[in-house]
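Handout, section B. The chain below has 194 residues.
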Amino acid sequence: MKLALKLVAVVVVALILGAGSALFVIRGFGLGGDIAVGPWVTSLTIGSTQADPYTRARVAVAGLLALNRDETIYFTAADDDDGEALRSGCTYKVTGSDLPARWWSVTLYGEDHYLVSNPKNLYSYGGDSVVREEDGSFVISVGPEEADRNWIPTGGQTGDTFSLTLRLYNPEPDAVRDPSAIALPRIAKETCQS
């Protein structure tokens, strides 16, 4: 009887440690093969046959439904240009120019990797929906207070964090070859609520 109880205890501890360590690895680390361009990070293995089981699990948890890199390049930013976490109580300006792809978009996701609920149902802007400046560049305002144009509401509480995902659909061959050379949008913190 004592041996059976010890065996059950060992199995339970092993299951807890195994599941816990797998969740830690899946949720706590980057996607492997990471390339950083300012605050934006991408992985060369997302959507490829080179993706290991942990990378595939991370993609599944983040809900990317990743396509092959020749079809789409995904960048994610959880920090601003100064390396500080993106927070719902702050306002950010995402500024840039058209990206080397047939179509691109910037989308806001909450800590749970889902769209952040907001009364305006605004979650994303893309190359075909963003209002541009006179020089063709764009400015997207991300924050709790409504902006005149190109506003993505952060919703949630002041302390909540979020991330931005930048998708480049049908990227140009040079972008596929070297994603680190792409001029990506800047993310500058403007103000924060107390």
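Note. The chain has one domain: 34-50+67-192. Compare this with the example in section A.
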